[in-house]
Amino acid sequence: MGIWNFLFGKPVKTNDAFFGEMLFMEVKIDPAKSYFEGWRHFEPINDNIEVCVSGSLSGPTQVQKDFFRQVENNYALLIRKVIPIVESRFQEWEAEFKTDNFGQKFKPVYIFIPDCVKKPLEWEIAFESMPELVDYNYPYVLTIEMIDSEPQHISVNQ
Question: Count of domains in the chain?
Answer without folding.
Answer: 1
